Amino acid sequence: MYVDLLKNELKKTYPSFSLIRRILRNAGRFRVRSIVPVLFKHFDKVVPLLREIVLYLLKVLTKDIAKSYKDEFQKIIDSPRTQLPFVNTWIAALLQHPAFNAIELPKNYDKILTLRDCALIATRREDRTWVKGYKNGVDTLGPWDKRAVLYSAQILSKDEKRTWLRIAGRRGGCLEAAVAKFAAS
Prior knowledge:
Elements: H1 2-11, H2 17-29, H3 36-41, H4 43-46, H5 50-60, H6 63-68, H7 70-78, H8 85-95, H9 115-125, H10 128-135, H11 143-152, H12 158-171, H13 174-184
């Protein structure tokens, strides 16, 4: 039913985005995975609905889907559109899903524009090397980036995490202290 509705709407020269948005929301609510191939096939046509697409994919994404559509996900990441801040933010939000551990996306962090998004992806990937690279310079970061790096410290070893977060939490404000305390626990 959802597949037919989506296909019929995407055949039109000017599809109704409100209808497609409704299809994506309902399909996400009921975990309908059958429309994933249709979305990837017509991705260029539905890219204005990127927010809804990402929210839908976050609800239905599994390791099997990530493996099956690895090339499509990589094509989206490599697209020049990802350099637009809005698009990049939503793609980074999608890449934080644990299903991407099965296929190691993104390969590197150069496509991600913000340090905050890189930190959250590094946390998902358990990329200790990335976190350690920001340990000494965490005080030079802006507040959002600093809290994201402190949050990503939760993947470090217990001793390293406790020592560093205790010091970093004392140097920052109340929000940094709260994030450091959470990451240390």
